[in-house]
Amino acid sequence: MCAAGKYSSRGPALIPRMKTKHRIYYITLFTVVLLGLIATGMFQFWPHSIESTAEWTLEKGSVHDAPLIRLPVSSPIPERGDLSCRMHTCFDVYRCGYNPKNRIKVYIYPLQRFVDELGVPISSTGLSREYNELLSSISDSDFYTDDVTRACLFIPSIDVLNQNSLRIRETAQALAVLPRWDKGMNHLLFNMLPGGPPDYNTALDVPRDRALLAGGGFSTWTYRQGYDVSIPVYSPLSADVVLSERQPGPRHYFILSSQTAIHREYRAELERLKEENGEALLLLDKCSNLSQGAAIARKRCYKGQVYEYPEVLQESSFCVVLRGARLGQAALSDVLQAGCVPVILADSYILPFSEVLDWKRASVVIPEEKLSEMYTILKSIPHRQVEEMQRQARWFWEAYFSSMKAIGLTTLQIINDRIYPYAARTYEQWNNPPVVKWSSVNSPLFLPLIPPRAPGFTAVVLTYDRVESLFRVITEISKVPSLAKLLVVWNNQNKSPPEGEKKFKCPECTAIDGLSLDQTHMVERSECINKFATVFGTMPLKVVEHRADPVLYKDDFPEKLKSFPNIGSL
Amino acid sequence: MERCSRGHMQAKKRYLILVSAGACLVLLFYLGGLQLPAARSRHGRSRIEQPWPHYSDPLQVFLPWDQTDTEEYNLHISPRQKRDVNRSVYKSKRCRMDSCFDFSPCQKNGFKVYVYPQQKGEKISESYQNILSIIEGSRFYTSDPGQACLFVLSVDTLDRDQLSPQYVHNLKTKVQSLPLWNDGRNHLIFNLYSGTWPDYTEDLGFDIGQAMLAKASISTENFRPSFDVSIPLFSKEHPRTGGERGYLKYNTIPPFRKYMLVFKGKRYLTGIGSDARNALYHVHNGEDVVLLTTCKHGKDWQKHKDARCDKDNAEYDKFDYKEMLHNSTFCLVPRGRRLGSFRFLEALQAACVPVMLSNGWELPFSEIIDWNTAAVIGDERLLLQIPTTVHSIHQDKILSLRQQTQFLWEAYFSSVEKIVLTTLEIIQDRVLEHGSRSSLMWNSHPGGLFALPQYSGYLGDFPFYYATLGIKLHPKFTAVIHAVSPLVSQSQPILKLLVAVAKSQYCAQIIVLWNCDKPLPAKHRWPATSVPVIVIEGENKVMSSRFLPYENILTDAVLSLDEDTVLSTTEVDFAFTVWQSFPERIVGYPARSHFWDSNKERWGYTSKWTNDYSMVLTGAAMFHRYYHYLYTHYLPTSLKNMVDQLANCEDILMNFLVSAVTKLPPIKVTQKKQYKETMMGQSSRASRWADPDHFAQRQTCMNKFASWFGTMPLIHSQMRLDPVLFKDQVSILRKKYRDIERL
């Protein structure tokens, strides 16, 4: 046998050279292998001196090693941010390009410590724990690229989550000196607490040119629909407290108010509601007798009685989330975590991720002015809807609120969906909790259509070797007027199909009249059903007791006048 | 031969090299693989993979505990004041419902719409006339401005292109002089065209004050979210009611059509909106991507014509627009001079998935429609990528996009009525905030116009979402017996019926609707049953009251019965099990059919035994309780009054309604043979059926109903559902529903 030609058509021409040089090949090969092994061994067992370069110390993770950047007073300040910005006007889509995965690439700037001319940092906190978590999770995700030239979206490592800890002007200057800033084009900033005293703006006050803002607490007047992303205010309790999911259902209290900084006008209104409806309402406030500190965040009080927060939220069907100075409230996250239905009273507030989440299925939004009618409004909601909302609320928290990672990646997915809208996640993917995903049935042919008869149908006949019954089927079926095509699938490797009109005799097959009489056959089919059900994870088949017949089937009516007279006559 | 064997040896050696090299590589990977995760866990990833170093310093939290409260702020600013400030600051271009809309009249009187009386001599275009008459005929209409939540002008604002013959002059003074104008507060202004050549601005040429716009071709820049409504551009030929059905008659799999992407339209050589269309030729390949433009439009096209014009024009004439539309998977919808174009609706109707190329267009009804499910939103800047993009879309997705075009077309766009009602419903949803539709209700069958949120906020209370949400149906039904004759003897059919129905294992309760002029019979006159029997005295004793959404009905299913209906327990049981498989349809016994009488040019009604049917009489039918609500609140008073006056046709109207919603025929189940005889025989209501007028009335009803629906919603079916072993040659003892075939 000669097989050489099969491997390479160039074979013969190569042979002389191969022959003289193959010794050298072996030597080279083994050298390479040896070197490779040595290198690997060194990498594996060498004490870590190999990492003691400047870069590696930074890798060890200390923010103090980040380079210090001094901003001159005259350093340029970006423009305030254009309210008319939209993806098609302020976003450079060419940087994202076409890619088969339909996924944007996100670059994160390396950490730098910005200080003003006098050496005072631009932020009192520097990099916060949460922003570090956010950036870490993005850098671990599929969105991440370390190649700045291939990036579609840029995330500065300047932490602007909380405007309170920022020096506005200097932060803006720091943004402007980022090497790829380019008027903020394709830059994304995360901010959860915008504005500051006295009037608390609803969007970050740091001038930011065209940068996109993922903000917690947007109002309809500052939110640039389809450009900005409305995000939740992360609640630190999400990480500290484990609240196990409770079955949806009625709770001890009907309405619970647990926020501590409620304006006195609203608190008075709530007190009035409490007077009218008594025990159904629980109105909690800060505990005055406890010392200040982190512990106070975990306690709430009512007339001297102390309640654990956020655990107490699980005891109520509805939980009030009232606006404070800011529209976005971290309490929303706690409420959702507890599976309590949030009753949101914050006029003009853009709910978190409202671009993709259907809040109507998870919350009740009531205008601030109608706080006094809250009880009546909530009472009118059917029980089963409350249960669905409880389940939905908890699911929203798990999927989109529970960690900085969830918040960050959801934001990126929303932006990704805008850039590749044809590959966007669907409403069902965003909104259906896993339990619905498992139990729902979504037919790929969902449009109610009654197809016309004209195109007819195609008959597909599967056959093994029972030729006689095959021919009987073919003869019968071909009488049907609406038959468009008949397809015979010959499922037998040992015989070739019969040709033309020639008839086969098959003595052994006539002996068995139908496989279904065979006992082992039935057992096998039961096994199949069990196997399939295991793989599907559920039994998708449904039992019905009806059968479709023609309207006049077996009716006492002249057969001649029936459309399908001889059905069931066999 | 010699060369060959040498070659063979060489091949052997090469194998050896390959194998050893492979082995080495495996070894390397193995070692490397072991090493990598170890390194990762110890000190973050290597520089190349992982530049964000997961800082492990003890970092500060972003929200210190002492900052969670903002009490200081609370001391200074009153929320009430803050709301007032917002209301005074955010006006005109920054209008929102919170700042430019007065909710109070809507909360007092519900969502009522007032239309200003038309001034004599005022010229109104046909399209605007249609809009006004639809509002006046809708259930939102009020003739009393004191009751109104929303005001609609009677002066035509549709065409604000100064060069158009429809342009209304002096609009400013006309509007300002309206006594109820109130700076446009709670007013809704419809507009299709604004601005004119050359810049086509979106200005209407008069101060709209705080009024809301329902406008076509509105840009995201000018669109005031949740305040304006973006409507589709429609032609003056667009049907007032009803409207054509979608083009898709059946699904094909795989879902590809002859062309992948088509376009045929004008090319603007210069000026606004010309860029997108001028570049189309780059993408045209004459095979599966056919994008044709013509320069021939306007008076002086020759003046601007460029080198490609003649060639393009020749190619343009070779293709038929309709043919292309119906034979393409995707249809390009590039912007014209304005952002929206007729092409959008045309593509939607033709089940040709629109590929939008109109940057900054706020798509029609964007507030409620998830356009990603029915269109491909392209970017004008990425025109050259469009063919790759559409080719990359998986066929499952195409199948779903295409079906969704048809759903949306029929739900919201096929007639002016639907466009106007959708606009009003969107605004109503905003006004009744907590009782509004979820996105699922708007974007899935049967759509927002048929899913009324005032009925219930819980999706499981509707017949449409059981499958999509995996919700289980209520396992029982409520029987509603419509009683019209006095109770005189204990052998009356109604009593037999009551007993038979109560015996059904699925029966939760029986409601007797006493629509008889005689007073209610004493409680003991009713037979003792295992299920509760509730007797309700009918309001005004009118026919429509049998479909009122009684609060006592707590089950999903309602078994609607006439007092003289003869049914056995088995029949009822069987009907209910069938209905559980088809909760959105009417499932019942006696069926009727409609037909088009071409001699009289009208719809005909027949009760003959035929091979098909399109209605199931509600004297013995099972359907979802939601249809009680829909019958009462969706249908216009005019039709309900007609039914009440004739004391007839209520069943036809119910069938019209349910088929209009489901786009499917009702379902007939087997009945015992005796049914027919009794039904038409000696029973007390035989008089009603024997009356020749009765039949003629039903013909009239049919035509009246069809004209209100704007189309004939009834659909024929040839199918009857029988119990599985019905009349099969097996022992009757093996049959569960054996009574049905016993005579």
Automatic annotation (TrEMBL), chain A:
GO terms for molecular function: glycosyltransferase activity. It is found in: Endoplasmic reticulum membrane. The keyword Transport does not apply. InterPro entries: Exostosin, Exostosin_GT47, GT64_dom, Nucleotide-diphossugar_trans. One of its GO terms (biological process) is heparan sulfate proteoglycan biosynthetic process. One of its GO terms (cellular component) is endoplasmic reticulum membrane. Residues 457-499, 501-553 form the Glycosyl transferase domain. It holds the Pfam family Glyco_transf_64. Residues 256-283 form a coiled coil. The chain crosses the membrane at residues 24-46. Residues 101-381 form the Exostosin GT47 domain. The keyword Coiled coil applies. It is a single-pass type II membrane protein. Keywords: Coiled coil, Disulfide bond, Endoplasmic reticulum, Membrane, Transferase, Transmembrane, Transmembrane helix. Signal peptide: none annotated. PANTHER family: ACETYLGLUCOSAMINYLTRANSFERASE, EXOSTOSIN GLYCOSYLTRANSFERASE 2. Belongs to the glycosyltransferase 47 family. This is Exostosin glycosyltransferase 2. It comes from Nothobranchius furzeri. The lineage of its organism: Eukaryota, Metazoa, Chordata, Craniata, Vertebrata.
Automatic annotation (TrEMBL), chain B:
It is found in: Endoplasmic reticulum membrane. Residues 108-392 form the Exostosin GT47 domain. It is a single-pass type II membrane protein. Its cofactor is Mn(2+). Glycosyltransferase required for the biosynthesis of heparan-sulfate. This is Exostosin glycosyltransferase 1. InterPro entries: Exostosin, Exostosin_GT47, GT64_dom, Nucleotide-diphossugar_trans.
